[in-house]
Every structure is written in C-alpha cells, then in structure tokens.
Amino acid sequence: MEHVYHFAEHGPGTNQGLLSQLVVPRPIAMVSTRDAQGRGNLSPFSYYLPITGDPPLIGIAFGMRESDGDPKGSYVNLIASGDFVINVCSEVFADHIESIAKEYPHGVDEAAMHGFEWIDSRRVSSPSVAEAPARLECVVHQTIPLGSDLARVVLVVAEVVCAVIADSVLASPDLDHPRIDLLALGPIGRSGARSFVRAVPEAVYHQERVPYLPTDTPSDL
Known about the structure:
Blueprint: H1 12-22, E1 26-27, E2 29-34, E3 40-45, E4 48-53, E5 56-63, H2 73-81, E6 83-88, H3 97-100, H4 110-113, E7 118-119, E8 128-129, E9 134-148, E10 151-165, E11 170-172, E12 179-180, H5 182-185, E13 188-190, E14 196-198
Antiparallel strand pairs: 1-13, 2-3, 2-6, 4-5, 5-10, 6-9, 7-8, 9-10, 11-12, 13-14
C-alpha cells in the first residue's frame, strides 16, 4: 500500500516538514557573521549544499524569522558585509545546535553564550569559531528570492575563497589531493522532527565507483 501526499493541498509548514524528513541526512552550515556593531552571530542552517567546483560555490536557503517575519540576523549581516563563514557542524556543536538556533534578539552573541571562542578569519571579515575543526570562508556571489508570501526564502549562493582545516581531521597533509577523515571530522547531520545523525563507524561504508565499459552486461552493473 502507498500513500500519495499532494503538496498543493497542504500548507507551507507541513510541506517543509515532510521534505525535511525525506531529504536526509542534510549537512548543517553553522554560519558565523558579524553585525554592524561588530558583534558575532552564529546560527545553523540545514538547507545547504555544494553546487560546483569552478568557481567553488555553495548554496544556503535563508528563511524568515518565525517570531516576527523579519529576515534572520545572519542574512542581514552577510548581505551588509558580503561574506560569512561556514563552521563545519561537528561533535563540538552536537549538544548546542537547537539552543544556538533559537531566535534570540538581535545583538545576542550565540557563540559566547554557548562557550565558543571567536577568532579572526583568514580571508573574510566575518569571524570563525575556533573550536570548529574545519571552516569554509565564503563571499556572497548571488542572492535569489524564492518561496511565496507565506514562506519567503532567499537562496544565497556564495563562493568559498578558502578552507581552514585542522590537522586532526586530515587523512593526508597533501593539500594538492586533500582527503578528510570522516570519523575524525565527526560531522552532525540534520534529519526531520528535531532529530540528528552522526558519522559513526557502523554507519560508514565505502564503495568503489567503477567506470562503465562497453563489455558490461546488466548482470555486471
């Protein structure tokens, strides 16, 4: 038996809830910015993906604040400065993700509140979280308004200008052929209904990608 869910028959919140439970696991971009007064801002976003390698682009969907419908502080800050940092959401953030995600009043420093240290980034004006084992420094490339009046969203496409990676999560120090140790990185992914996933040995497996050959038969694939 199958059930058919027609998106046009449901509201935006219910639709997004279903998508969030089926498009899983999703990486979490722990975005750091700085406001006009110089205060740091930290917020997680799980509608996030890599787009292309040349130029190296990523995309993050920024919705509006649920409490008042205004743009999120992270979005306001990155538009003003033109840059932001993605602190890879690893085990160091695991116990704080939902707390950091609260809609605090503008000006609240979520990193300091949760015991994290700000440090200067290498190529952008936005600060980085010192405890993050890997960070992507990004410059805004394009913004694309999407959604409807009931569910306004802006897709921010950004160019990654540099990655800062702790030696502890590199499988090899050769940055001409970088390889990340997934289990050492310990990324946290997002599922639906306030649930998250971890990279643990039992959940990780490897599979070689073998090029197709004209001699292959369906039984070989």
